From TrEMBL:
Entry's Gene Ontology BP terms: trehalose biosynthetic process
Recorded family membership: Belongs to the trehalose phosphatase family.
InterPro entries (UniProt xref): HAD-like_sf, HAD-SF_hydro_IIB, HAD_sf, OTSB-like, Trehalose_PPase
Protein name stated in the entry: Trehalose 6-phosphate phosphatase
Example of a GO MF term: trehalose-phosphatase activity
Catalytic activity: alpha,alpha-trehalose 6-phosphate + H2O = alpha,alpha-trehalose + phosphate
Enzyme Commission numbers on file: 3.1.3.12
Length: 368
């Protein structure tokens, strides 16, 4: 197991929530078995703790009840920004289902030009990182922006700003650079690469006869997509994946939205990646920093939990149905994410005083 490379946050400030939200967010209910995890990952279950057993209410009513606990980030925007005044916002974004719609073909999960422009605007005013389950090369190809940071493979492959990082023993962490001089500061699963390639090859071979199954190499993890697999074939696919993993005890199987994820068993997830970015940006251990994370999937819950543990910031879930989550706020779908990001950039732009954008950048950001 790899140990974390920074000191944990000690701040005890209260989580930023709008005045109208008097309810506490319900804790996540853990899945008891693989089937439950599959259902949770696909967000197919409805959650309404207020309704009595066997009650029949419409999904709209259920969603409205859920939003009492997880109010709209758009409707709460003014209150959120009022609390953020004078503080440093750091923006973290998932990709699939957040910046792009969920599609049947993972290679066609393109973000719109409008979304790209919105993320670019946000990146002009705030340190911004995209943390995706995709390989870092794939998510960079989709996003096509140079003013944001990237973390691929669920945070196991990080490209962050050139800043020295010390481990717990006080020694500087080794860094690698790509051909353009961008630093790949952390790859905690690097030693697993040979095994990951073997798993990918075996999965491709064993699943190619299952119609609709798609195996994706995301460098430090392998994704088995089953969105287009017929129900009667799913169990066969699942058994093949589990059978292969029996020979690789250092790997585990987890679930996302119509996808099985094969990952090395290490203490690293999207929440750790969020903390790593804060560390390398020099924005950890300070009470005036508010991390904001927007994501839609089960893997994003790790980042939501970190923000809750820090005790300050804005965890925002993207969901069109009620779901168990650690997020404090919600957005309905990527179109609302677009509206929120545009509004966030406009708010920042309008809040600038006599200082120039360049001065703001050098004050609030680490140099790209």
């Amino acid at each position: 197991m790899f140990s974390k490379i920074w000191m944990k946050f000690n701040g005890q400030m209260g989580l930023q929530t709008p005045p109208c939200n008097k309810h506490k967010v319900q804790p996540i209910l853990k899945a008891n078995n693989d089937t439950d995890e599959k259902d949770i990952g696909d967000q197919e279950q409805l959650v309404n703790p207020r309704s009595p057993p066997h009650s029949k209410i419409s999904s709209d009513e259920t969603y409205e009840a859920w939003m009492v606990e997880h109010p709209s980030a758009l409707g709460s925007f003014d209150g959120m920004m009022k609390a953020a005044k004078g503080k440093k916002l750091v923006i973290f974004l998932d990709y699939d289902g957040t910046l792009s719609p969920i599609v049947n073909d993972p290679d066609s999960a393109f973000m719109s030009d409008e979304m790209r422009a919105a993320v670019h605007e946000v990146g002009k005013y705030f340190p911004t990182a995209i943390i995706s389950g995709r390989s870092i090369d794939k998510v960079k190809k989709f996003v096509q922006l140079s003013n944001v940071y990237y973390a691929g493979s669920h945070g196991m492959d990080i490209m962050a700003p050139p800043r020295p990082v010390k481990a717990n023993d006080g020694k500087h962490h080794n860094v690698n650079t790509d051909k353009k001089g961008n630093e790949v500061l952390f790859q905690p699963a690097k030693k697993f690469l040979p095994a990951i390639q073997k798993i990918f090859t075996e999965l491709e071979k064993e699943t190619r006869k299952i119609p609709g199954a798609r195996v994706e190499d995301n460098k430090f993890c392998v994704s088995v997509h089953f969105r287009q697999v017929e129900e009667q074939d799913f169990k066969i696919l699942e058994e093949k994946v589990k059978l292969i993993l029996e020979n690789y005890p250092e790997f585990r199987l987890s679930w996302g939205r119509k996808v099985m994820e094969v990952k090395p068993v290490i203490e690293w997830d999207k929440g750790d990646a969020l903390e790593y970015f804060l560390e390398t940006l020099g924005l950890n251990n300070t009470s005036d920093v508010l991390p904001m994370y927007i994501g839609d999937d089960k893997t994003d819950e790790d980042a939501f939990k970190v923000i809750r543990r820090i005790g300050q910031g804005y965890p925002i879930v993207v969901s069109s149905i009620p779901k168990e989550t650690e997020a404090s706020y919600s957005l309905h779908d990527p179109s609302e994410v677009l509206t929120f990001l545009l509004r966030l950039a406009r708010w920042r732009k309008s809040s600038l005083s006599s200082r120039s954008v360049s001065q703001i950048w050098h004050t609030d950001h680490a140099t790209l």
